[in-house]
Fold this protein.
Amino acid sequence: MFQENYIEDFGVRIKPRIKHDESCHSVNHTNYAVLAFDENGTKPEKIWARLKDFIGHSGTLDNPEAIYKDLTPPKLTDSELHGTEAIAAVKFKEKEFITW
């Protein structure tokens, strides 16, 4: 388990546990985050942190199963989130656009 993935209110935060470079391995103190909100400051309706939940069995990043099947992200424990391939994917509520 080399990274910890967290679902936050507005997106995903990833905390790699180890920093790799040419000389050694050391503890990583950096967090990476993707946070999203709409024009009113509203958080996303759905948030995915695991790649496999977002793309699904028959999807791809170009056509993720979670989007074309309108799936809800699974409720996961920390141990289910940590150590997996991460993605920061969000979906907002649908909006109707009015044209003049």
Q: What stands out?
A: The first strand starts at residue 3 and ends at 8. The two ends are 53 Å apart (CA to CA). Residues 25 and 89 are 29 Å apart (CA to CA).
